[in-house]
Write a structure and sequence with these properties.
The chain has helices at about 5-20, 25-40, 45-75, and strands spanning about 90-100, 100-105, 110-115, 125-135, 135-140. It is an alpha+beta fold and about 160 residues long. The chain has a five-stranded mixed β-barrel with strand order 1-2-3-5-4.
Length: about 160
């Protein structure tokens, strides 16, 4: 192994290792270019050829591989989380729901609730849908599709927990 090959290997591994700090996949792509250059150097290519391979492979990786990697790994969650996951969820009235409060069951859990429209009142057993969450209170409205399982929130064509 010649000195140029060792240089490219060390540079490539260092760049890949530093990617942990950066997290933008730029150093990872440059590290890939350096490791490709190490391969050409180990095959006996001149230094300028290895440098050219480094440049071409690095640019290719930056343009072709980095964008889809970044979209895949750095995008936000694909599923709603926390209270956002409750928006649109089905609820069943446990205690009368009016503008001063009430109680509903959402996905097997009991939540304090108020009607999304102040003048509405919902009686125990009625099927509702969560319009929004205000702190720890679910703001609910009449659900047009009342054929669902209140423990899972599933209805016709709706996956449990959706």
């Amino acid at each position: 192994m010649n000195g140029a090959t060792l240089f490219w290997i060390i540079a490539g591994l260092a760049l890949v290792g530093l990617e942990v700090v950066g997290g933008e996949f730029v150093l990872l792509m440059l590290g890939g270019g350096a490791l490709a250059a190490a391969g050409t150097s180990a095959a006996g290519a001149d230094t300028w050829v290895s440098a050219l391979v480094f440049a071409v492979v690095s640019i290719g990786l930056l343009l072709l591989v980095r964008p889809p990697m970044k979209r895949h790994f750095l995008s936000g969650p694909k599923h709603a989380m926390n209270t956002d996951a409750l928006l649109g969820a089905r609820a069943e009235v446990i205690e009368r729901v009016h503008e001063d409060g009430g109680l509903v069951r959402i996905g097997g859990e009991e939540w304090s609730a108020r009607p999304a429209r102040r003048s509405f009142v919902f009686e125990p057993g009625e099927r509702l849908v969560v319009e929004r969450i205000d702190g720890a209170i679910a703001l609910v409205d009449k659900d047009l599709d009342t054929d669902f399982d209140t423990d899972t929130g599933a209805g016709p064509g709706v996956e449990p927990g959706a």
